[in-house]
Amino acid sequence: MPENKHPENKHIAFFNYPAHGHLNPALPVVAELVRRGHRVTYAAPRQYAGAVADAGAAVLTYASTTPENWEDVAIPEKPTGDDAANAMLAQVLEGFAPLSAAEERLTGDVPDLIVFDQYAHHTGRLLARKWSLPSVQTCTTFAANAEYSPYARLAELSDVQLDFTHPSFAELGKVFRATLDEHGFADLSVEEFSAGGEDLSVVFLPKSFQLGAETFGDGFVFTGPSLGNGRRAGDGDWPPPAGDRPLLLITMGSHGYENRAEFYRQCVRAFGDVDWTVVMAVGTQVKPAELGPLPSNFDVVPWVPQLEVLRRADALLAHAGMGSTMEALYFGVPPVVVPRLGEQQLIGERLVELGLGRMVMPADADAETLRAAVLGLAGDSAAKERVAKVRDEIRAAGGTSAAADAIEAVAKSR
Per UniProt, which keywords does this protein have (predicted)? Predict the structure, then answer.
């Protein structure tokens, strides 16, 4: 076991879900903990190993069950009961995927603290129980507690009928039960295991944006988005456009969605003749040639260093991912969102409820509607004032540094 020459410095193990929306806020926290002298071991599949190592962590590699490139998977516009059951099984399989590699690596080097993602809590929560370690949960989206769960609203939004006799649910139960039994928790129900027990939850939102915020007490720390130094592994250079025209960033994030090329074509029609600069990040699966003749005010690229563009942007048109939404608010940019998943619709509803942005449902996302939403919000001075207040709240919450403070405090408490 490596010797800890400074007892105040701790060994912290991180377990996260392998997707950019989960890694982006976590890795700056890892870098900050390492800067403070702590040692971090971070479980990650091969495709994210470089970014994890760049943050200063020791990489614990494992065989992930998730796609190597999320763009390659087109999320359906109208999910079925099959899709939902298969997705729930996939979440559990991925949650436990690092377990054997983590036990092999960490049994002789047991960490002082385990940090795990809300969505991929399985391995971290099990090892924290098994080794009687303190633990911290990180939440990249709305948190839940014993009194309030935003996911009840998700059930209301969905018209998908879950069939609990589906083979994927049967397999999910078997995997969960067998794993708990194998690790000495035969008397622990799946429901009890899933209910929590962590010492603290770190939520990468300002508290005002959290649904049911009044029900969350001292066990939850709302830090706002964790952006670190504003640069991410793989970010290239982005030369800001010349001139002082307003700038609109259009992005649908790092996941693939059905019919995304048609959405981008509608954007070209919507904003091709406005006196704005439009930066549209379309990923690698959609080619600019598919979008028809591109107007001179459009810059269509696979990816952009999003934080750099938002620093200069006046408007955002995006998919209502929590990461992009929080990043826009951090820079005081009012977002228009076109949600493609139930959770994204919750985020869109919250933006509208707080008067911070506008939401267009995918079925309504034609050129005329998108143009009216973006230009209407850009001209809404009251919305801009509300966004400015949330921007100030977010920056006061502390972001990366506050999250590191909270995790460090739990690590040093035992």
Answer: Transferase
In this structure, are 260 and 363 located in the same domain? Answer: yes
72 and 186 both lie in a single domain: yes
For the segment 290-347, what is each residue's pLDDT rounded down to a tens digit?
Answer: 998 999 999 999 899 999 999 999 999 999 999 999 999 999 999 999 998 888 999 9
pTM across the whole model? 0.93
pLDDT at 3: 47
**CB atoms closer than 10 angstroms to residue 268:** 20
Residue pLDDT, tens place only, 338-371: 998 888 999 999 999 999 999 999 999 999 999 9
Q: What is the CATH number of the domain that holds 111?
A: 3.40.50.2000
User: What DSSP state is assigned to residue 162?
Assistant: P
Distance (Å, rounded) from C-alpha 40 to C-alpha 57? 5
> What distance in Å separates the CA atoms of residue 190 and residue 92, rounded to the nearest whole number?
11
Torsion, Cα 194 144 52 313, to 10 degrees, reads 160
211 lies in which domain range?
11-224+398-412
Q: Look at the chain and report how many structural domains it folds into.
A: 2
In a domain, 259, yes or no: yes
338: in domain: yes
Closest CA to 407 of 164, 88, 111: 111
